[in-house]
Amino acid sequence: MKKCNGQKFKAIDFFCGGGGMTCGLRQAGIDVIAGVDFDGNAKETYEYNNPGSVFIYKDIKNLWSNYFERNFGVSKYDDNLIMVGCSPCQYYSIINTDHSRAEMSRGLLINFARFIEYYKPGYVLVENVPGIVTNKETVLYRFLEKLNALGYKNMVKEIVDMSQYGVPQNRRRFSLIATRMDGVKVTLPKKSERVLTVADVLGEKNGFQKIKAGHKDTTDFQHTVAGLSEVSLKRMAMTPHNGGNRLSWANQLELQLDCYIGKDDIFKDNYGRMWWDRPSPTITTKFFSISNGRFAHPEEDRAISIREGATLQSFPKDYVFKTNSIAGAARIIGNAVPCEYARRLGETIIKSQ
User: Fold this and answer.
1) What would the mean pLDDT of 164-175 be, rounded to a whole number?
2) Which residue ranges form the domains of the chain, and what is each CATH number?
3) Distances in Å between the alpha carbon of 273 and those of 12, 243, 261, 301?
4) Which pLDDT tens digit goes with each residue over 102-133?
5) How far apart, in whole angstroms, are the C-alpha atoms of residue 171 and residue 282?
6) Residue 256's pLDDT is what?
7) Who contacts 146 (Cβ-Cβ below 8 Å, separation ≥6)?
8) Contact 259, 178 (CB under 8 A)
9) Sign of CA dihedral 251, 254, 255, 261
């Protein structure tokens, strides 16, 4: 583990999910003491892939501020402690389909601030959707005021596209690193000289054998893909390779969907194929479904597989998703912070001192 002033950098990953942020920070050499999340379905995945990092199955609103002090020996005012808060973002996301879940996610950042106030860690790290900045009802500004009042006046914050940071995916997110320490210059990671594309990480040359819709991979590689109906297979067959979309069969009565008749200018990415020579679109929790975005393989007549989605999120290929369904694995993957971006964030914090 990397050390600062002879001490190990350590972190607590709030809203950790299946461990994307934890994985990246560990790759950077940071000791992630624990991850906190109220999604019990993510626990096995988190702990299996991040041995030594404890999954705390708790609602942050019901977690005592001194929990980590009492159970892990975490000290207050530890300059080497990083508190990470990548709270669920449904309320501020442009893809908002569940109003009740969205309302529950609205104030989680303020709950996270309670632990910052109690422990005064050396660093605070936040990642969230861009809407947390632009939404008129956002709690971000209250959170920033709280950070400032607590002495975290040294900070950097920006909306970034992770395709510029080693992730083969167009994924815009708000990032913040703050410290209360004087003389420490915090920055976001440097941008990559080259943007990775789908072809750089997927395809046969990268270990992904050709498969058909409905293929089930019983190994830990999890190259499993959702099935397709007969009519959707016909749609895929008529969708041009490498970036084709549903407009190629819009005039075929047996293939066109009623909801799209006369509406060629909306949701054009649905049923679309990815491009080999571009980063993928944002990997959501529904990436296993061709009807939910441009999630079809560039040339095979199917959606991308669980492993392909995880790879586009920069998870290591030996990261195993311990779920009983495609939808469950996709939810963990789509909600995660890409590991490579998390690794770079960790290394940037380490180098700041």
Assistant:
1) 97
2) 3-191+339-351 (3.40.50.150)
3) 38, 5, 20, 9
4) 445 567 999 999 999 999 999 999 999 998 88
5) 5
6) 83
7) 110, 113, 116, 117
8) no
9) positive
- C-alpha angle with apex 163: 160 to 166, nearest 5 degrees? 110
**Identity of residue 321:** F
Residue 245 backbone dihedrals phi, psi, to 5 degrees = -135, -175
Q: What pLDDT score does 267 carry?
A: 75
For residue 11, give every residue at least 6 positions away whose Cβ sits within 8 Å of its Cβ, in sequence order, or none. Answer: 22, 25, 30, 31, 32, 33, 81, 82, 83, 84, 125, 346
Q: Which of 18-32, 152-166, 204-218, 263-277 is the least confident region? A: 263-277
- In the residue annotation, 4 being an active-site residue is answered as no
Average pLDDT over residues 149-177: 97
Strand partners, 125: 84, 177
- Residue 87: the pLDDT is 85
- For residue 222, the one-letter residue type is Q
Sign of CA dihedral 106, 33, 24, 269: negative
135, 166, 8, 143: which is closest to 85 by C-alpha?
Answer: 143
Pairing of strands 7-8, 3-4: antiparallel
For 304-328, how does the pLDDT look when each residue is reduced to its tens digit (9 = 90+)? 999 999 999 999 999 999 999 999 9
d(CA 185, CA 200): 34
Among 16, 23, 86, 89, the active-site one is 89
Rounded Cα distance between 57 and 40, Å, is 6
CA dihedral angle for residue 170, residue 190, residue 15, residue 138, rounded to 10 degrees = -70
Exposure string over 188-202, b if 16+ CB within 10 A, otherwise e? bbeeeeebbbbbebb
Q: How many CB atoms lie within 10 A of CB 66?
A: 13
The average confidence (pLDDT) of the chain is: 92
| Distance (Å, whole) CA 66 – CA 115 | 8
- The model's confidence at residue 89, banded by pLDDT at 50, 70 and 90, is low
